[in-house]
Each structure stands twice: as C-alpha cells, then as structure tokens.
Design goal:
457 residues, alpha+beta, Membrane-bound Lytic Murein Transglycosylase D, Chain A, 5 domains, ten-stranded antiparallel β-sheet, two-stranded antiparallel ribbon, 9 helices, 16 strands, 38% helix, rod-shaped
C-alpha cells in the first residue's frame, strides 16, 4: 500500500510539473505575441512617420539638391565652353598680338633716327612753354644781351638756332635783318621769345603715278607710309598685306601717289558708282588720274581712288531652306568655285553645326590623313600648335578682314607667310588638341567675328 501511494504521488508530481511547464510556455507565447504586436504597431507608426517626414522634408531637400546639381552641371558646361577653347584662344591671340605690338613699338622707337627738330623736346622748358600743335620753341635769355661788333651779332642768331637743332645755311653778310634780330633777342633783360621756324618746313615732292619700293633693312610699314606721306592702310591694301603680316628686306611694295586704294575698271562701272563704293569724291578721282571726264574710263584700266576705303565683304542673307538642303547644296567636287569658298575637305558629313559662342564653326567628320584644302586664295598667317584646343591648326588671311581657320590637323603642309591658292592641299586631317575623334574644325571670320561658315560655302 505504501508503495502504491508513493507511485501515485510521483505521477501527480509529474502531472503537476507538466501542467506548470505548459502554463509557463503559454505565458511565454502570450508575452511573445504581445511583443510582436507591439513591434508591428511600432513598425506601422515608423512607416507612417517616415512617409510624413519624406513628404514634408525629404522631397523638398531632394528637389533642391537635384536643382543645384543640374545648375552645377550647366555651369560646368558653360565654363568649359566659354573659358575653355574660346577663352584660351583669345588669351593667346590677343595676348600675343599685344606683346608683338609692344615689341614692334619698342623696336621702332629704338631704331628711329634722331632728327634735329626733336632735340630738346624732352626738356622741362619745352613742356612748359611749347605748344603741342607745332614745333615752336621758347628761348629764355638769362642776361641782357650785349653786342660786340659784327662778329657777336652774327654769332648770336646762330647760337639760338643751334639750341633748337636748326643749322643755318645762309652765308654771313655782316648784317642781321631787324625782324630776325628782334625775333631772337630783345633789348630788355630777361625775356622769353619765340623764333619763327616756318622757313625750315620741308614739303614732300608730290607724285602722280604708282611706283615700286624695295624694302630695306629695319623698314617698317608705318615708316614707309610716313616717308611717302601715305596712310599705313594704303600700303596694306595696295599690297594685300594682312594686319599680322611682316615685310622682309628685298620685298617689293606698290606705292600709290596718294592715300587711297586702286580700282580696275570693269564693264558697267561709272565714276559715280566707283566713288560711292569707296566713299570717295568723283572730282578727286578725275584730278588724280588726270581724266577730263568719266568718258575716259576704259575697261581694264587701273585707277587710283584718293581717300578711298575698300568696302567690307558682303555677308549673304540667311537661306530659309532646311539644314539638310544647305548640306546637299555644298556636296560638290573640291574645285575652285567662283564667288564662294571651297569645301575644305573630301568628307561631307557635318558632326557639329555653328552655334555662335558655344561652337564657333562647323565640325566635319573625317578619317585621319584626309586632305584639307584652302577655301580661298590668301596668305598663311598662322600654322602651328594651339594649346587652347585647336591642336595643329592653320589660319589663312584672304584680305579685307576675311579669314578661315582649320583645326585638329595631324600634319601641316604649309608655313606662315606662304601664299596659297583656292583648292591647294594645306594639311592632313586628324584629332589633335581638344578632340574626341578625327574631324576638321572649320571657321570663317569676318573682321575678327566668327560667322556661320555655311553662309559662305
């Protein structure tokens, strides 16, 4: 009996233990479910909180960041386009021209001959007393002049003239004209007087025909123009010399008799039309060319237009046709085309059009090594490397402010100063400088301004 009682107690204890464990496990499960429910509620609350935060703060911040990023990208593109190739090119070109101008000016100043009338012009007395419009010099006498016979009278004016750089060529006669003596000295003590030097003025001999001048050592265009009493532009126009060209000793220059230009008479020309074209006077044209009237104008004859100014090259009106039609209209063989520029290469595919300051020319897709042709007759003013983005490039001056540029070449066949004809091979195409692939960058410039090349091709 006792053993049975013990076994029952053990069984009851085990059942109680199992029930207790079941109760505990149930409690744990309930607690875990409560925690899970709490976490789910927190998740829902956090999700809505994040959505509200994103809508109120996140999206505006993102939009601001996106706008700033876009503006930064546009600014970067603008700076690269504006201050990249164009800016570097302008700095190099205009900086180089400025340096060259200072160099030429300094050279001319050092090489200029010291003239008698220039002696004493840097003195303080000259700056205080001389007029800026002439070469009259005021002489100050420090003591009352005394005259000791005829010798002193003759020496006094010679000394006064010598002080202003004028040498007297008059034979001494022992007598001084009263007006000259009074103009040099006064009988009063200290005085300021002004000698009349109009007699020393030299009038250049007038010419009535065109002559040829051979350039000498150290000659400059401005000095040659001054020696012949002409404007510098007259020398440049008559000899088809660009503003950046140089002259060499032994070179022959055409010298007109007066400032102006030359004109070859063609069919339909009239005296009034010629005068109007060059902004000159018809009477002056007749006088300089020794013509009685306009009936003496003959076709083929070359006349001088005094004070004439060459007309600027005409800019053709913008065509209303489509861009594709404009491209097809220039698909012609590389042969000289009267009145238009030559297509500068054998390829015809335009990869980038003229966009003003954003792109100053047109890009023509080519293969490396294809020939590049001169678009018009002219003089090579630049042939070499450009660090601003053009790579190996060439500029041809066609006169009257008209020039063309050829960039990104792989090889150059011409040198600065050479004359080329329309259609001459001047380079081989390539991808030098700031370039993403082989192409020709072609520009047309009129009076320094970049214009659309398709208007001239």
């Amino acid at each position: 009996m006792r053993k049975r009682q013990e076994s029952r107690n053990i069984i009851l204890a085990k059942k109680n233990g199992i029930l207790l464990l079941s109760l505990l496990s149930s409690i744990i499960v309930i607690i875990l479910k409560i925690i899970g429910a709490a976490l789910w509620v927190i998740k829902i609350l956090l999700t809505y909180a994040i959505k509200i935060f994103v809508r109120i703060f996140g999206l505006p911040i993102y939009h601001i960041f996106k706008a700033l990023s876009l503006k930064a990208k546009r600014a970067k593109t603008y700076v690269r386009d504006q201050f990249g190739e164009n800016f570097s090119r302008n700095v190099i070109i205009y900086g180089g021209l400025t340096g060259l101008l200072f160099f030429v000016t300094a050279t001319n100043i050092k090489a200029r001959e010291l003239r008698p009338e220039d002696v004493g012009t840097n003195s303080g007395l000259y700056a205080l007393l001389a007029k800026s419009s002439d070469y009259e010099l005021l002489i100050q006498e420090q003591a009352e002049p005394t005259f000791d016979g005829q010798a002193n009278q003759g020496a006094a004016p010679d000394r006064a003239l010598a002080q202003i750089g004028v040498e007297s060529t008059t034979e001494p006669t022992g007598q001084i004209p009263d007006d000259l003596l009074e103009a040099i000295m006064t009988s009063v003590g200290d005085a300021l007087v002004k000698p009349d030097l109009t007699a020393t003025e030299i009038n250049p001999k007038l010419r009535d025909s065109i002559i040829t001048y051979v350039v000498q050592e150290k000659d400059t265009i401005s000095e040659i123009a001054e020696n012949f009493n002409l404007s510098t532009n007259t020398i440049l126009w008559a000899n088809n010399i660009g503003p950046r060209d140089f002259i060499k000793p032994g070179q022959e220059l055409i010298i007109l008799p007066v400032t102006g230009v030359t004109h070859t008479i063609t069919k339909g020309d009239t005296l009034t039309a010629i005068a109007s074209r060059y902004r000159a006077k018809a009477d002056n044209i007749l006088e300089v060319n020794k013509l009685a009237d306009s009936s003496e104008l003959k076709i083929g004859a070359k006349i001088v237009v005094p004070d004439g100014i060459p007309p600027a090259p005409a800019v053709p009106a913008q065509s209303s046709s489509s861009r594709l039609a404009d491209i097809r209209s220039i698909f012609k063989p590389v042969q000289p085309i009267a009145g238009k520029l030559n297509w500068p290469t054998t390829a015809k595919r335009i990869t980038q059009y003229f966009l003003g300051w954003r792109h100053s020319g047109i890009d023509i897709g080519v293969k490396t090594g294809q020939p590049i042709y001169a678009a018009e007759d002219g003089i090579i003013t630049t042939a070499g490397w450009n660090s601003g983005g053009y790579g190996y490039y060439i500029i041809i001056d066609h006169g009257n402010g008209f020039s063309t540029l050829y960039g990104h070449n792989s090889d150059l066949y011409v040198k600065k100063g050479e004359r080329v004809k329309k259609g001459d091979v001047i380079a081989a195409s390539g991808s030098t400088g700031r370039s993403t692939g082989p192409h020709l960058h072609f520009e047309v410039r009129v009076s320094g301004d970049r214009v659309n090349p398709l208007d001239y091709l």
